[in-house]
Amino acid sequence: MKFEVTILGSSSATPVFNRNPSAQLLNCNEKYYLIDCGEGTQQQLTRFNLKATRIDYIFISHLHGDHYFGLIGLLSSLHLNGRTKSMQIFGPKPLLEILEIQFKYSDTTLRYPLEFFPIDAIQSLQIFENEDLIVKTVILNHRIPCTGFIFEEKQRQRKLIKEKADEIPVAYYTVLKKGLNVELPDGKMLLAEDYTTAAEAPRSYAYCSDTLCDGSYFETIKNCDTLYHEATFLHELLDRANETHHSTALQAGEVANIINSKKLLIGHFSSRYKTLNLLLEEAQSVFENTELAVEGKTFQL
Predict the structure, then answer these.
(1) Chain centroid to CA 185
(2) Does 52 lie in the same domain as 23?
(3) Of 129, 177, 176, 175, which Cα lies nearest the Cα of 154?
(4) 8 A C-beta contact, residue 116 and residue 98
(5) Phi, psi of 63 (to 5 degrees)
(6) pTM of the predicted protein model
(7) C-alpha distance from residue 96 to each of 31, 93, 108 (Å)
């Protein structure tokens, strides 16, 4: 099953040439989930040939503009292009008021239903579930209420061994793939382990947007397979990171080690950095399997 994320924006609050504010597109089993929606997100979707019409779920971490200023434009374009299917949005409660005011004063009535689910930034909760994955919040420590998100694949069914499929009545395929043994009318036992193989272990992706690196959220994201963690500053600016409730690249690497992640992606880079090699090297100095979450890159999770 496809489980990958494409980076649409890697920058922080102020504009930088060739870098966009925060936005990522998660593809899970060909369903699209948009994570944050900074300014220019819909242009980035077009640039990387990702169809906005396939997005049915949007997750907004907090109400600093570099994480949601692109949302009204995206929703409006979908309206103008004739969308009729509903859009589910998960975000801070005041976001709904912001959207309603925008639509009110532009005299816009969306052609499609907008389903809004307010996020409680007090405790980690499961906020979404479908047949493919579960989404939970991560309570972060920023200047305003802020959550990250964990996207967890559901356990898939066992896989039928093709070479043995002819030996099994079709009616028993589903039972065996669930890991259950089958007794045939003649008394013969079909053991699930003889006719199926175990599915791949479910994978998880943790998205930690803006946060002071204070350890409060480590337990929630423990053992996630891939971690995205903001790395706004080099560690020489630790005082500035603490003042603004952000993290350094070194801290991001340390978090990946502490929580036992397999891979680290870093982003949300300050505009003061015209090149990003030093940030990457700093994170890699404590967690080798680190990559830059930069525009256009797609990571298999």
Answers:
(1) 48
(2) yes
(3) 129
(4) no
(5) -100, 35
(6) 0.91
(7) 24, 6, 15
Distance (Å, rounded) from C-alpha 137 to C-alpha 143? 17
The domain of 285 spans 3-156+200-300
Among 283, 180, 301, CA closest to 292 = 283
Within this chain, do residues 47 and 114 fall inside the same structural domain, yes or no? yes
Angle at 263 between CA 257 and CA 265, to 5 degrees: 100
**Domain co-membership, 141 together with 287:** yes
Residue 194 has pLDDT above 80, yes or no: no
- Pick the catalytic residue: 66, 132, 210, 225? 66
Over residues 10-16, the mean pLDDT reads 92
| Residue 18, Cβ density class (10 Å: 0-12 exposed, 13-18 middle, ≥19 buried) | exposed
- In terms of domains, do 145 and 86 share one? yes
Query: DSSP letter string over 62-114?
Result: -SSGGGTTTHHHHHHHHHHTT--S-EEEEEETHHHHHHHHHHHHTT---SS-E
Pick from 169, 196, 197: which is nearest to 183 by CA?
A: 169
- Distance from C-alpha of 139 to C-alpha of 123, rounded to nearest angstrom: 6
Same domain, 144 and 175: no
In total, how many domains does the chain have?
A: 2
pLDDT in tens, 112-158: 999 999 999 999 999 999 999 999 999 999 999 999 999 999 988 77
What CA–CA distances, in Å, run from 43 to 23, 74, 101, 121, 194?
11, 9, 24, 30, 51
Q: End-to-end alpha-carbon separation of the chain, Å?
A: 11
Tokens of 84: 């009729």
Collapse the DSSP code of 144 into the 3-class scheme (helix H, G, I; strand E, B; otherwise coil) and give the result. coil
Q: Examine the residue annotation and report whether 66 is marked as an active-site residue of this protein.
A: yes
